[in-house]
Amino acid sequence: MVLVTASSELERICGQLLVVGFSGETAPPSLLGEITRGAVGGVVLFRRNIGAEISQVARLNHDIASAAPPSHPVLIAVD
């Protein structure tokens, strides 16, 4: 049992080094789940993620940031 916990902790620590991207203007549920688990440390937004309305970008940022646990905030970057 301790080995699983240690492995999970190592996975979380390594995941915090990852900054990932995705397709579309909304964050996929699978990505939000990985952020919640602490398996992803950041998200980079590209042109493909940015719609015409500022409210879409604000909602996207809110969804990503809200998925992160308070102990592991997520980095949101724009390219």
Descriptive labels:
79 residues, 3-stranded parallel β-sheet, alpha/beta
Question: Could you walk me through the main structural features you see in this protein, from its secondary elements to its overall organization?
Answer:
The chain has 79 residues and is α/β, with parallel strands linked by helices. 47% of the residues lie in helices and 13% in strands. The chain contains three helices and three strands, in the order αβαβαβ. The protein has helices at 2-15, 29-37, 54-67, and strands at 19-20, 42-45, 75-78. It has a three-stranded parallel beta sheet, covered by helices on one side. Helix 2 links the parallel strand 1 (19-20) and strand 2 (42-45). The protein is elongated, with a radius of gyration of 14 Å.
